[in-house]
Design a protein that fits this description.
The protein is an alpha/beta fold. The protein is built from six helices and nine strands, in the order αβααβαβββαββββα. Strands 2-1-3-5-4 form a five-stranded mixed sheet, with helices on both faces.
Length: 256
Amino acid sequence: MFKAIRISILLFVLFFVAVSTWLTQARSTDWNNSLWVKVYPINGDGSDRSDDYISKLEARDFAGIESFLERESSRYAKDVARPVRIELGRPIREQPPELEGSRNALAVMMWSLKMRWWASGVTDDQDRIKPDVRIFVRYHSPDTALVLENSVGLQKGMVGVVNAYASRRHRGRNNVVIAHEFLHTLGATDKYSPDSGQPIGPDGLAEPDKSPLYPQKYAEIMGGRIALAEDDAVIPQSLKYAVIGPLTASEINLAN
C-alpha cells in the first residue's frame, strides 16, 4: 500500500514537472510578450583580466542581441516591439558542472539535470523572480582559444553556458555565441558540422540561393559562421552579419 502511494506521488510530481516544462517552453515561443533573459558573468579562467572586464560590464553590452531578435522577428511578421529583454546579473563565483568522460545519452541526461539544479542554486540569492532564460557567460583572457562548440544551450531548464573573451574588441562575437545558445534554449538546432564547424547547406546558410554560392555575406545564426567557401567559414564579428533562417524560425515558432 505505502509503496503504491509513493509511486503515485512520484508519478504525479513527474507529471507536474513535465507539464510545467511544456507550458514554459510553449509560452517562450508564442512571441506575444518579451522574454526575460538574464546574463550571469563568471570568471572562467580565474584571471585578473577577466575580473576587471566583468566589473565593467553593463546591460547595454548585450543590446546587440536585443536588436538582432527585434530585427529578425519583424522579418517574420511578429509584432513584438522588444521580443527579448536582457538584464545583467551579479557575477557567479562557482563554475558550472562539466560533462566529463563518456558522452552517451545517460551521461548527457545526468549532466543536464546537474546543470539545471546548479543554475537554480547559484542564482537563488539574486533572483526572487526566476527569469525566462538564464545564460551563464564564462569569460576568459583573449589569449585562450575558444570555439563555438564549447558553449551549450539547454531547452529543458532554459539554461545556457557560453565561453567568451574578456575583451571589448570581442563583444560582437561574444554576442553571436550568446544569441546562438539562447536560441538553443528555445528549441533551435545546430546547422553546422560538429567535426569541421562548417555550416551545412541549405539550412545552415544565410543565402542558400545565392549564385555563386560562396562567399556568403552573412551567417545563419544556428549555422554559426559565415561560409566563405565550401571548406572555410568564420564567426561573424557581430550580429549585424547574422540572420535567422526559415528552418530555425520554424523551430522556435517565429515563422508560424
